[in-house]
């Protein structure tokens, strides 16, 4: 049943992307089919095959080990507040957000040493040859898995202005589909299974390429003479570690401020909607509106009809606000859902596809390539839709593998 439902979900998501295509005759079906096969193969390996599941657990344990190392630094600054089992209990900013500082510092060191670029070049180059996608968009798709949509485009900065329209759209979609590796620790601290987060993050690379090439297939001549930027802005490893820590702390502050503001705004909106609903004897809320609007998509990707409205409300929060808010609200409610629905939601929410990401890409990519700012604004909504469909595709494929 899960297999048939998942196949139906995959076909449904691909059909929506096909209907949105700017040039259906130009679609390279070899790219689409190989990317889909890659998705399903990886999903089978890590979700169904015992050795693959063990490998994914090993990777998750490794990430958890890094989180534990981060707590040593936090403990020096915050003392016993780092102990979630202590009298203070779980403090979100301490346990969930501050580990980002250490992870960001570690990534900066790996980038300074050139390890990150070499790893991404190998994986991205293999992906380009396998799928037939350009080197620039393939490298960016892999880089985005680790660095996110704000830093990944920097590595291909010299080429952004001369990318084809299809390549540039793919860059945008990759940014919407993936999440930065540094924030996965924050999601995991909210109770979201780290194994599923890692699987969703990795699957974002081929799924973003697949959906982007369905919606805006390549029709121009591609320049594959692309190399990742190796320019170093840090004086040495210590400088890189310090810069990474500083940027990580800025991210922590931004996320904390955003969560406080948006969760309070949601409460305000729910209060107003509740007041309006009381006039008509209806329990009206933002979650209810999101739930009913998006429940057909939740059912499509494998959520049972009985859980669809409540599950879709979290997908709506991710789309309208961001994935941090959605995961923060989902964590306490995971016990109310079946294991399959929890897994599907983890995959469906794991991405930056939301309306505020359009502004982020305008600010970042638009600054790196000013000549493409207008194009970012024009394609922004389509990129959000494409990124959401890519996340849905990941969720549907994962649902197929549920035992």
UniProtKB/TrEMBL annotation:
Keywords: Cell membrane, Membrane, Transmembrane, Transmembrane helix, Transport. It comes from the Bacteria. It holds the Pfam family Nucleos_tra2_N. Its main location: membrane. InterPro entries: C_nuclsd_transpt (IPR008276), C_nuclsd_transpt_met_bac (IPR018270), CNT_C_dom (IPR011657), CNT_N_dom (IPR002668), Gate_dom (IPR011642). It is a multi-pass membrane protein. It comes from Bacillus clarus. This is Nucleoside permease. Belongs to the concentrative nucleoside transporter (CNT) (TC 2.A.41) family. The keyword Cell membrane applies. It is found in: Cell membrane.
């Amino acid at each position: 049943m899960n297999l048939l439902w998942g196949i139906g979900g995959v076909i449904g998501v691909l059909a929506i992307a096909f209907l949105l295509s700017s040039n259906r005759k130009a679609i390279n079906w070899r790219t689409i089919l190989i990317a889909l096969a890659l998705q399903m193969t990886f999903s089978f390996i890590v979700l169904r095959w015992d050795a693959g599941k063990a490998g994914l657990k090993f990777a998750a344990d490794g990430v958890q080990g890094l989180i534990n190392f981060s707590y040593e630094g936090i403990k020096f600054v915050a003392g016993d507040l780092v102990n979630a089992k202590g009298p203070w209990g779980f403090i979100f900013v301490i346990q969930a957000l501050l580990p980002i500082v250490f992870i960001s510092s570690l990534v900066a060191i790996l980038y300074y040493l050139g390890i990150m670029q070499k790893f991404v070049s190998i994986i991205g180059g293999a992906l380009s040859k396998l799928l037939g996608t350009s080197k620039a968009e393939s490298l960016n798709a892999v880089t985005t898995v680790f660095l996110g949509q704000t830093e990944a485009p920097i590595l291909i900065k010299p080429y952004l202005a001369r990318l084809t329209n299809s390549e540039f759209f793919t860059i945008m979609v990759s940014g919407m589909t993936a999440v930065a590796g540094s924030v996965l620790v924050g999601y995991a601290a909210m109770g979201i299974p780290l194994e599923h987060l890692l699987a969703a993050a990795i699957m974002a690379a081929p799924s973003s390429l697949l959906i982007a090439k369905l919606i805006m297939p390549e029709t121009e001549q591609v320049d594959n003479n692309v190399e990742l930027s190796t320019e170093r802005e840090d004086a040495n490893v210590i400088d890189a570690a310090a810069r990474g820590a500083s940027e990580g702390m800025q991210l922590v502050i931004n996320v904390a401020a955003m969560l406080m503001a948006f969760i309070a705004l949601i409460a305000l909106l729910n209060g107003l909607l509740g007041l309006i609903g009381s006039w008509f004897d209806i329990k009206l809320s933002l979650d209810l509106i999101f739930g009913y609007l998006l429940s057909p998509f939740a059912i499509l990707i494998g959520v049972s009809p009985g859980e669809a409205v409540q599950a879709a409300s979290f997908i709506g929060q991710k789309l309208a606000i961001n994935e941090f808010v959605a995961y923060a609200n989902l964590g306490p409610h995971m016990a109310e859902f079946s294991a399959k629905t929890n897994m599907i939601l983890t995959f469906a929410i794991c991405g930056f596809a939301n309306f505020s990401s359009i502004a982020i890409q305008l600010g970042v990519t638009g600054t790196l390539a000013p000549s493409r700012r207008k194009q970012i604004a024009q394609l922004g909504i389509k990129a959000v839709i494409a990124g959401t469909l890519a996340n849905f595709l990941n969720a549907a494929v994962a649902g197929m593998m549920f035992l």
